[in-house]
Amino acid sequence: MKQQRLGWFQRLLKNRDVTALLAASAEGSVATEAALRQMVREINRRDIWEEPLDRLTYVVFDTETTGFDWRTDALIEIGAVRVENGQVREDQTFSSLIALEPGRRVPEVVRRITGLSEQELWRAPKVQDVLSRFMAFSSDAVLVAHHAGHDVNFLNVPLNQFYGIELPRRVVDTAQVARRLWPDTGEATLDYLIERMAIPPLTRHRALNDALLTARIWSVFLTLFTRKGLTRWGDFFTWMKTDVVIGDEY
Prior knowledge:
The structure is a single chain. Helices cover 49% and strands 14% of the residues. By secondary structure, the protein is of the alpha/beta class. The protein has one domain (49-240): Ribonuclease H-like superfamily/Ribonuclease H (Nucleotidyltransferase, domain 5, 2-Layer Sandwich). Strands 3-2-1-4-5 form a five-stranded mixed beta sheet, with helices on both faces. Helix 2 packs across helix 6 (127-137). The radius of gyration is 18 Å and the shape is globular. InterPro entries: DnaQ, Ribonucl_H, RNaseH-like_sf, RNaseH_sf. Residues 57-227 form the Exonuclease domain. Keywords: Exonuclease, Hydrolase, Nuclease, Nucleotidyltransferase, Transferase. Pfam families: RNase_T.
């Protein structure tokens, strides 16, 4: 009965069949919106309190944008990678540029940092199509991002505009986790953490590479949590709201 209630589109989401999902999306935005709304409701209702942290599936994601203000700037790239059984699955990634809106330009500083040209972005898929594929990719996972508020705000604007939804409520911010582990980390930038944790660097400021770096950080965090006795999601959630410092290994 539950599968019947979820419907055909939700089954595609659960199976992460992106090709079929895109075909289904073409049938009309009303069907897509209804299915995505149902998916988010199901994710938000899912009870993971007792589930082992290192057995949950995570999708670690990052975005590139035209600026820092989610109210006036726009997404230009999304990258993501899955973490399963505590391991970064570099064979299971998501990466897409996003088309510029008519009349929107990319500041020169953003072009220089990312290496992206406006010509590439003019040829990219529309944001609503990229978002439906990203939601399919991440439909069975807990979301993780570094300084997650920035990425969440930028994703929620077009998600709300085109589908009337926002990302699921459960999003882990690795910067907040780092500050809880090590109160001396200050802003806990990605560069600071990969240096502190001796994680091999990648070329920065492209969404997939930054997602991969964040995923490697999260994988180390999962190992550290296990050593310290935080084995369930509920343990982690409770610890994040306490003043107990457990991060003394880096």
